[in-house]
């Protein structure tokens, strides 16, 4: 199901993900099924009805796992097709042609992911490396453009620590992709308000999707940026999420939990002067606009 249901939406999450082998860290394997269901049920109580799960092929994507979480939590989870970034790309990305990779994504959108009946509703997260657009990453982007044009599917990107966002944007513009159909990810990690504004002015959606990860970038600065964007009437292209990828992020392990956005970050935004209207724009109206059926 690629259509959103009425309610709030988290634009960039992973219901399950496994980056543990390459990162050599078991914490990077979200296999805590019951705890995930519990946290998603808490999100439901806060009004969340949709989660955009951007776990691409090669990131431990597990369609049945996600479908079971969706069923038990009553949250509509949109699942993804595509490939992440170096060094997490499946072996066949290196051997398939661009057209073959594009067709692979098209098949997952039109027929189903991994031979299931669950159709992909987004292409992503497709990514670039830190301050680099590696050749295989560019190959994935080329294929994603073909698939997006054929199926009119939203593209969601990963930018490592917010870098290469303008290069991604220029790539999509050069390829004739409508920027309003692209979400440039992790821009709250860029620390560059001017870059964020430039992306918005070009027509792209930008995701503040690592909320609560103060070890990367402080939430107070995120709020400062959002307040500036509110004052300049530029929030109509901004979405929010947490991008939880570690078991230690969960409440049961003493982490921030998925509900951090609602119990901590939104109250902080309100205290800083960000209006209820602006908050609804970012967590409800903007995602609904993105995924509305043509």
CATH-derived topology: TIM Barrel
What class would the helix/strand composition place it in?
A: alpha/beta
Rounded mean pLDDT score? 97
Measured by DSSP, the beta-strand proportion falls in 5-15%
What is the number of independent domains? 1
Distance between the termini: 15 Å
Instruction: Calculate Rg over CA atoms.
Output: 18 Å
Strand order of the largest sheet: 4-5-6-7-8-9
Main sheet characteristics: 6 strands, parallel
The residue ranges in which pLDDT falls below 50 over 5 or more consecutive positions are: none
What this model shows, in words?
With 294 residues, the protein is an alpha/beta fold. It has a single domain (8-290), classed as Metal-dependent hydrolases (TIM Barrel), CATH 3.20.20.140. It is 42% helix and 13% strand. The strands form 2 sheets. A 6-stranded parallel β-sheet has the order 4-5-6-7-8-9. Strand 2 (48-53), helix 3 (63-73) and strand 3 form a beta-alpha-beta unit. Helix 2 (33-45) crosses helix 3 (63-73), helix 5 crosses helix 6 and helix 9 (219-231) crosses helix 10 (260-272).
Note the main attributes of this structure.
single chain; 294 residues; alpha/beta; TIM Barrel; 3-stranded parallel beta sheet; 9 strands
Quick overview of this protein structure:
By secondary structure, this protein is an alpha/beta fold. Helices cover 42% and strands 13% of the residues.
Can you lay out the helices and strands and say which pair or pack?
Blueprint: E1 8-13, H1 20-23, H2 33-45, E2 48-53, H3 63-73, E3 76-78, E4 80-81, H4 92-95, H5 98-110, E5 122-128, H6 135-151, E6 155-159, H7 165-174, E7 182-184, H8 193-202, E8 205-208, H9 219-231, E9 238-240, H10 260-272, H11 276-290
Helix pairs in contact: 2-3, 5-6, 9-10
